[in-house]
Every structure is written in structure tokens, then in C-alpha cells.
Amino acid sequence: MLLVRRGSARGLRVAAAHPGAQAARAGDAGRGFAVVAEEVRNLALRAKAAAARTEGLIRESLKQAGEGEVAARHTAGRLGEIVDGIGKVGDIVSEIAIAARDQTAGIDGVTGAVGNMDKVTQQNAASAEESSSAASELSGQAEELSAMVAGFQLQPSTEPKHQLPARSGAHA
User: pLDDT tens-digit profile of 25-81?
Assistant: First the structure.
């Protein structure tokens, strides 16, 4: 496109140069032709300037497009790093979740053990209370028995009624 505009501007300059020379040869009759040739020359100069501006804009656009491509590649690289980082974070979160499940299972085990210990402690306390009650009852019965026995008077006897057999030499 740029080459077409440059070629058009060059063609207009050539066309403007030849008719101007023709108008100069024609004298007064060619003055109108000279005015037209001057306009064509001015148009050619403006076309040349426009082509130069267009060329500059195209070059600047190409430069910016190249810079944009570099920025896009850089951004794509960074986004790749972010995606990798997100994957790593996901892995860490999964590991944390597994560890949390393991800890929950451990806590459940400890809770069960504490519950069992509480149950055994309550059973032991109940057994101790029963034993204490039984001991108190036996103590009361022993006191009653002792009072009953105290009411009897025994006479001393000279001969024992029962003799214990002698033990064989195992423990002697």
C-alpha cells in the first residue's frame, strides 16, 4: 500500500512537470493549463507528504505490534508461572486436607479412649462405693457380734477340747 501511494505521488509529479513545460511553450493560451499544472504539482507534493506520514504511521504501528507481541509473550509466561503456582497451592491444600483428616481420626481415637477411661473411672467409683458400703455393713455386723459375744461368760477349762494335729515336716 505504501509503495502504491509513493508511486502515485511520483506519477503526479511527473504529470505536473510535463504539462507545466507544455503550458510555458503555449504562451498566453497555456496559462490556464499552467494553473491546472500547478494544482497538480501541489497535489503531488501533498500526496508525497501524506505517503511519508502514512509510512511513518505504518512503521510505528509495526514497532508497537512487535512490542505488544513481546509483552503478550511475557504475560503468557507469567500466567504460566501463576498456573504452576496455583497447582502447587492445590497440592499443598490437598496435603493439608489429608493431614486434617488424619488428625481428626486421631482426635476421635483419643476422644474414644477418654470416654472409655471415664466409663472405667465411673465403674471404679461405683465399685469403691459398694465396697465402702459393704465394709461399713460388715463393721456394723462385727460390732453387733462383738456385743453378743460379750454377753456370754465363759469359764476357764483346764483341758482343751480340741488339739490341732501336728504338721508334717514340710514347713518345720
Answer: 666 666 778 888 889 999 999 999 999 999 999 999 999 999 999 999 999 999 999
Question: Are 9 and 17 spatial neighbours (Cβ–Cβ below 8 Å)?
Answer: no
Q: Does domain 2-139 have CATH number 1.10.287.950?
A: yes
Do residues 50 and 5 touch, judged by C-beta distance below 8 A? yes
In the chain, what are the helix, strand and coil shares in percent, each to the nearest 5?
85, 0, 15
Q: How far apart are CA 52 and CA 42, in angstroms?
A: 15
Give dist(CA 76, CA 10) in Å, integer: 45
pTM attached to this predicted model: 0.43
Instruction: Give CA 92 to chain center in angstroms.
Output: 7
C-alpha dist (Å) from residue 37 to 4, 8, 22, 26, 89: 22, 16, 10, 13, 76
**What ranges do the domains of the chain cover?**
2-139
The residue with cell 493549463 is 33
Q: Which residues contact 50 (CB under 8 A, 6 or more apart)?
A: 5, 9
Confidence band for 19, pLDDT divided at 50, 70 and 90: low
